[in-house]
Inverse folding.
């Protein structure tokens, strides 16, 4: 059972990696200036030393660093991400509250970028050198080079402020009390702009990569053989070229999928999307140690998980990989 | 006896009633930025928490824009002639949002037990309080150990929020589960908090003032990006942008739109006062002549006009002109580069670089630091900007690791509450950015600050504060910049939004929407 053995060994490595990440992040965060007590007290506008000391004691920050680390790692081993003193709730609860919104956004963007990117890439490679190819390539380059932040604001300006077609921010219409299908449609309308904005960049990457890879593979000998056999153009592209050209795209998709949890900070901020990226960013500014560490660990777990999935997908797409192992 | 009768206010209220009848109902959408860490006002007192929780909780008194006390939970009050006894008569028939009766015992519990433990700013005022007693269900007496002039300003909702005894007595306040669903006596009740999106409050049908509030519900909307907040207002998604929720350069564009109103009022109690701490301990900033040169080098009119889009006033000294006991009988520092150069020449400034630490509160503050640096370099001061985030700023200022650091502080209506804390020697203590961070030492002024706080008669206090202001402005312990103004921008259909000295924080009680 080579596949099973691989997965088991990968899992053990994954757990060790996760622990290493937790410890490393712990020290990185504590190396940053300031602490949650000072930030929280500072926001009240008139703290005294007594109050700051009280807060530190409540947060457990008065203990030596190695004790804090030991407690934290011990918690992680028991699947306990700790407590956010700032928000007065367990970290796991904070993350779970935000998870659906983030996954909905990033997964939609992922699917959009992957499907459209590959489709456009294949289309462009089939018309290489023609005006439609140039148009697609230029557009891809434009999307690739546009800063996400700017694209997001422009999308809001055009589609929300000027045209009024789509809501510019938020997850759903606040206080409308929609249920069932009406609610789903409402959320979908709110999803369009952020998902497109987030998806554009990767769509451009996938398209350029698919196109280049398709062109490269189409020069190889087995394609000539297929042509000599008298197969049709579309059949060759689909079954012979694409299947071989898709591997680098899978690698990249695996990387993007790893960012499904924490990779949308900017998009979530501009579109007021109540997701995990924002939770992480705001917690970082507030030095809410447990929450940031929690988000980091969940994100890291996702990256590792998708690396394993990518490996498995490789084997399906290209059976030679499994045979060699 | 200073006696303020409730009837006086009924008459005043009748006279102030607008010609058009208020309309009931409607929903108001208000931006809250950033998302508050919690809504239990007794535990958390940052700006966003006060904005939202000021509708849920109440104080004994409210204050009009001239900082005169008005009835809140207390319908009348009197102060004894010796300034030692404060007697409050509470409203009858007030209930908490969960239906329990509100009594004088809640007030005693809040002020004497709960807030003494949790509220750093109130603790300073409570140091003058010898006892707090409930005489009967609707009468509370505060007895002071010595007169404390500003005490009458300590009953605002953010300073002394009244919290429910039946929920908190004997519990660990910080971890009480009810903190997530706050229970107050205010005009609006907590309904829901969708983290990252909005906080929903609904009308308190049992509110003790007949006919109030007018609004059915309020949504506080969390929109993290400043440009998106401006768009939300443009598209009509939100009705109110509380002060400071959009960048200054967006303000003229938004207020130029149809049916958009704005007001700088509603900040009188806070009177946010901006300055740069100049490190009095070391480096060029420890020389008084250098500090005076900084004052003359800066074109603060220009900063106000360009960086703040014309909002605010140039500060003349430590006390804001909006705060009680202000005096303008002080040295005025106009923009005078020649004078600045002469002072630098006299002290023999050798071009030693100084670091400027901006406040990490957005673009406006970054640009302000750049304007200061430009002005300083014009007179030959070698200044560099050193930026950091909020936590880093707190760390650097509280550990005195800076040369010049931007800050602004609220004054809470009285120099003894919000001003002296930055200038007296007993407030020099590492580890907090809310005290005498610059390290100014002037023992004779320390005595005056202390005496001024404990005078009974306002005239006596004014005389001492006049002396203090004249003297301290010549010493330039810090470089005073501007009395900040954060305009509230709102849809003109919303009426009576800002009626008190804390503005939107407790204004929704009286607000209504014209159809």
């Amino acid at each position: 059972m080579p596949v099973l053995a691989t997965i088991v060994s990968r899992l053990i490595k994954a757990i060790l990696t996760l622990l290493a990440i937790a410890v490393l992040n712990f020290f990185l965060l504590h190396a940053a200036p300031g602490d949650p007590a000072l930030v929280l007290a500072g926001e009240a506008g008139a703290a005294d030393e007594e109050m700051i000391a009280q807060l530190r004691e409540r947060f457990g920050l008065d203990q030596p660093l190695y004790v804090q680390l030991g407690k934290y790692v011990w918690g992680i081993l028991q699947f306990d991400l700790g407590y956010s003193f700032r928000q007065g709730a367990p970290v796991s609860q904070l993350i779970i509250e935000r998870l659906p919104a983030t996954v909905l956004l990033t997964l939609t963007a992922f699917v959009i970028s992957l499907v459209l990117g590959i489709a456009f890439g294949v289309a462009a490679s089939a018309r290489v050198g023609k005006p439609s190819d140039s148009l697609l390539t230029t557009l891809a380059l434009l999307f690739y080079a546009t800063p996400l932040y700017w694209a997001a604001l422009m999308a809001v300006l055009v589609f929300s402020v000027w045209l009024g077609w789509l809501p510019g921010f938020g997850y759903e219409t606040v206080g409308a009390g929609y249920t069932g299908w009406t609610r789903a449609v409402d959320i979908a309308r709110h999803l369009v702009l952020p998902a497109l904005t987030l998806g554009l960049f990767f769509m451009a990457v996938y398209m350029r990569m698919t196109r280049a890879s398709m062109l490269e593979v189409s020069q190889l000998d087995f394609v000539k053989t297929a042509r000599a056999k008298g197969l049709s153009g579309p059949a060759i592209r689909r079954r012979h070229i694409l299947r071989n050209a898709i591997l680098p795209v899978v690698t990249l998709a695996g990387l993007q999928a790893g960012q499904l949890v924490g990779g949308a900070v900017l998009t979530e901020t501009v579109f007021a999307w109540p997701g995990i990226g924002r939770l992480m960013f705001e917690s970082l500014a507030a030095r809410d140690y447990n929450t940031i560490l929690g988000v980091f660990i969940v994100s890291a777990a996702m990256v590792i998980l998708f690396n394993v999935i990518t490996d498995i997908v490789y084997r399906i797409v290209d059976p030679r990989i499994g045979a060699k192992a | 006896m200073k006696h303020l009768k409730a009837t006086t206010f009924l008459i005043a209220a009748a006279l102030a009633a607008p010609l058009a009848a208020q309309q009931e109902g409607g929903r108001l959408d208000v931006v809250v930025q950033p998302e508050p860490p919690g809504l239990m006002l007794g535990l958390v007192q940052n700006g966003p928490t006060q904005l939202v929780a000021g509708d849920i909780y109440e104080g004994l008194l409210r204050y009009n824009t001239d900082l005169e006390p008005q009835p809140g939970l207390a319908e009348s009050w009197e102060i004894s002639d010796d300034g030692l006894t404060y007697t409050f008569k509470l409203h009858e028939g007030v209930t908490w949002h969960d239906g329990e009766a509100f009594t004088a015992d809640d007030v005693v519990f809040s002020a004497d037990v709960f807030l003494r433990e949790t509220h750093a700013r109130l603790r300073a005022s409570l140091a003058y309080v010898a006892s707090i007693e409930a005489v009967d269900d609707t009468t509370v007496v505060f007895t002071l150990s010595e007169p404390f002039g500003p005490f009458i300003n300590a009953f605002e909702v953010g300073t002394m929020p009244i919290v429910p005894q039946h929920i908190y007595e004997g519990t660990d306040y910080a971890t009480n589960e009810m903190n997530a669903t706050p229970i107050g006596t205010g005009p609006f009740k907590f309904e829901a908090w969708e983290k990252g999106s909005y906080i929903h409050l609904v009308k308190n049908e049992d509110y003790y003032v007949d006919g109030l509030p007018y609004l059915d519900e309020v949504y506080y909307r969390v929109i993290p990006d400043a440009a998106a907040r401006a768009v939300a207002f443009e598209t009509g998604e939100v009705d109110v942008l509380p002060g400071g929720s959009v960048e200054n350069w967006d303000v003229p564009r938004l207020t130029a739109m149809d049916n958009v109103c704005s007001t700088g009022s509603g900040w009188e109690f806070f009177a946010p006062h901006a300055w740069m701490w100049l490190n009095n301990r070391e480096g060029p900033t420890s020389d008084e002549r250098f500090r005076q040169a900084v004052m003359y080098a800066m074109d603060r009119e220009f900063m106000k006009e360009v960086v703040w889009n014309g909002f605010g006033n140039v500060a003349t000294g430590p006390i804001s002109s909006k705060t009680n006991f202000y005096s303008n009988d002080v040295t005025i520092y106009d923009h005078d580069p020649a004078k600045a150069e002469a002072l630098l020449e006299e002290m023999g400034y050798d071009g030693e670089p100084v670091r400027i630490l901006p406040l990490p509160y957005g673009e406006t503050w970054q640009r302000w630091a750049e304007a200061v640096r430009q002005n300083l370099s014009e007179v030959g001061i070698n200044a560099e900007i050193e930026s950091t985030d909020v936590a880093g700023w707190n760390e650097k200022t509280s550990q005195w690791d800076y040369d010049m650091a931007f800050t602004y502080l609220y004054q809470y209506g009285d120099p003894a509450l919000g001003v002296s804390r930055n200038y007296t020697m007993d407030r020099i203590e590492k580890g907090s950015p809310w005290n005498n961070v610059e390290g100014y030492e002037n023992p004779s002024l320390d005595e005056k600050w202390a005496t001024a706080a404990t005078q009974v008669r306002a005239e006596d206090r004014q005389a001492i504060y006049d002396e203090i202001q004249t003297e301290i402005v010549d010493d330039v312990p810090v470089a005073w910049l501007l009395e900040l103004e954060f305009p509230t921008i709102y849809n003109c259909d919303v009426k009576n939004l800002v009626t008190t000295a804390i503005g939107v924080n407790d204004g929704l009680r009286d607000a209504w929407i014209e159809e």
Chain B has 16 helices and 22 strands. The radius of gyration of chain B is 23 Å. Chain B touches chain A through 58 residues (CB under 8 Å).
